[in-house]
Write a structure and sequence with these properties.
Its EC number is 4.1.2.5. InterPro entries: ArAA_b-elim_lyase/Thr_aldolase, Low_specificity_L-TA-like, PyrdxlP-dep_Trfase, PyrdxlP-dep_Trfase_major, PyrdxlP-dep_Trfase_small. Keywords: Lyase, Pyridoxal phosphate. This protein has 345 residues and is an alpha/beta fold. The protein folds into two domains: 233 residues, Type I PLP-dependent aspartate aminotransferase-like (Major domain) (Aspartate Aminotransferase, domain 2, 3-Layer(aba) Sandwich), CATH 3.40.640.10; 91 residues, Aspartate Aminotransferase, domain 1 (Alpha-Beta Complex), CATH 3.90.1150. It is 43% helix and 17% strand. The chain has 14 helices and 13 strands. The strands form three sheets. Strands 2-8-7-6-5-3-4 form a seven-stranded mixed β-sheet, with helices on both faces. Strands 9-10-13-12 form a four-stranded antiparallel β-sheet. Helix 3 packs across helix 10. The longest helix is centred in the C-terminal third of the chain and has 19 residues. Bound molecules: pyridoxal-5'-phosphate (PLP). Pyridoxal-5'-phosphate binds next to helix 3.
Length: 345
C-alpha cells in the first residue's frame, strides 16, 4: 500500500528543493579542525538563539544527550529525569555504556514532573546512595505527548538545581515547537540550562544533525567527547547548511503543524472507541488510545487507506510536520472518522 499521509514521525521530513540548493552551494572546510565556515555559522546561530556562549554541531540528538551527560557526570552519578524520557527508552542504554551514570526516573504528568518530585529525588549526602548530579527535562515531551514544560516550572526546577549544586540539561529535540507554541524566546529557556540542544532533523526539516549549546567551558569538554565518540566530521558544511536553512525558514511555520495536530486531536476526541483530551495536544504530537485492545487493528485499517501512525506503549501516535499539507490532514481526518465508525459503531 502506498503511504499517502505519513504521521509516523517528524523525522520523516525531507529536505525541500530550496534547502537542497542552499546545501549544494554551502561553503565547506574541515569541520574536525574547526574550519568549516557553514558549520561555524550554524553553531553561532544556535548559540545566539539559545543565549549561550557557544554551540557544537553533532550528527544526532542522541549524541547531544550522551555528550552532555558524559560531561556532567562520572560513573555511578545519578541523573533525574521523567520515566518517559528518551534516554531511558530509545538510546540503546547509551547512558549505562558511555557515562556509566544511573537514572532516577520520576512519574510525571505527560512527561512533566513537579519541583516537589525533583526535590524528593535528590539524594542525601550518604555513601550508601548514588550522588545526584543532573536534572534533565525533555522539551517537548515525546512519550508524554508533545507537552510543553512551562517556563515558570523550569525556573523553579533550575533554582532547586542551583541550590543543590546540580547541572540542568534540556533534551530539546522539539524545543522550538515549544518556543513557538508558548511564544517563548528560546534564549529564555536557555538561561536555565547548563546544556541545551535542538534537533535539526525533526520538524525543522533538515536531513542531519543537532546543535548543542552551553558555556565555553562546557563546549570545550563536549568537543573532546565528540571526537572520542567518532562524531567529528570533515566537510560537514554540506549538511550543516540544511540546519542553517531550517533555522532561517522553518521555525515560525511550526505553528501550522500544531494547528494540524489540533485538528486530528479534535477529530479523534469525537469518535466512539478513540480517546484523547484535545487540550493536552499542545504541539505536533497526538497520542491517543483505542478501546477494547484494538489499537493494532485501527492502525492496520488506517494503513490500508495509506495513513501511517506509530504504535507506542499500547497507544497510537500521530505526528504532524512540514511535509504534511492541510489537504493531507483533511484526508487523515476523513479516514480516522470512517475507520472508527467501521470498527466501533
Ligand atoms: C528524537 C529524539 C532524540 C534523539 O534525537 P536523534 O536526532 O534522533 O538522535 C532525543 N530526545 C527526544 C525527546 C527525541 O524525540
Amino acid at each position: 500500500m502506498e503511504i499517502k499521509v505519513d504521521l509516523i514521525s517528524d523525522t520523516g521530513t525531507r529536505p525541500s528543493q530550496d534547502m537542497r540548493r542552499f546545501m549544494a552551494e554551502a561553503e565547506v572546510g574541515d569541520e574536525q579542525l574547526g574550519e568549516d565556515p557553514s558549520v561555524n555559522r550554524l553553531c553561532r546561530m544556535a548559540a545566539e538563539m539559545l543565549g549561550k556562549d557557544e554551540a557544537i554541531y553533532l550528527p544526532s540528538g542522541l549524541m547531544a544527550n550522551q555528550i552532555s551527560f558524559a560531561v556532567h557526570t562520572k560513573q555511578g552519578d545519578e541523573i533525574i529525569m521523567d520515566q518517559t524520557a528518551h534516554p531511558i527508552h530509545y538510546e540503546s542504554a547509551a547512558l549505562a555504556v558511555i557515562s556509566g551514570a544511573s537514572i532516577r526516573p520520576l512519574k510525571g504528568e505527560g512527561g512533566i514532573f513537579t519541583v516537589e518530585q525533583a526535590k524528593e529525588a535528590i539524594r542525601d549526602d550518604d555513601y550508601h546512595s548514588p550522588q545526584t548530579k543532573v536534572i534533565s527535562i525533555e522539551q517537548t515531551t515525546n512519550l508524554g505527548g508533545g507537552r510543553i514544560w512551562p517556563l515558570e516550572r523550569i525556573k523553579e526546577i533550575a533554582e532547586l538545581a542551583v541550590d543543590n549544586n546540580l547541572k540542568m540539561h534540556m533534551d530539546g529535540a522539539r524545543m522550538l515547537n515549544a518556543a513557538v507554541a508558548a511564544d517563548v524566546n528560546p534564549a529564555e529557556y536557555g538561561q536555565y540550562f547548563d546544556s541545551i540542544w535542538l534537533d535539526l532533523s525533526k520538524g525543522l526539516g533538515a536531513p542531519v544533525g543537532s546543535v548543542l549549546a552551553g558555556s565555553a567551558e562546557f563546549i570545550e569538554q563536549a568537543r573532546f567527547w565528540k571526537q572520542r565518540l567518532g562524531g567529528a566530521m570533515r566537510q560537514a558544511g554540506i549538511i550543516a547548511a540544511g540546519g542553517i536553512f531550517a533555522l532561517e525558514h522553518n521555525v515560525a511555520r511550526l505553528k501550522e503543524d500544531h494547528k494540524h495536530a489540533k485538528m486530528l486531536a479534535e477529530t479523534i476526541a469525537d469518535q466512539k472507541g478513540l480517546e484523547i483530551d484535545p487540550d493536552t495536544v499542545e504541539t505536533n504530537i497526538v497520542l491517543f488510545s483505542v478501546a477494547d485492545g484494538k489499537a493494532d487493528l485501527f492502525a492496520d485499517e488506517l494503513l490500508e487507506k495509506g495513513i501511517r501512525v506509530s504504535r507506542m506503549e499500547g497507544k497510537l501516535r500521530a505526528v504532524t510536520h512540514l511535509d504534511l499539507s492541510l489537504e493531507d490532514i483533511r484526508y487523515a481526518v476523513k479516514h480516522i472518522e470512517k475507520t472508527a465508525k467501521d470498527i466501533f459503531v
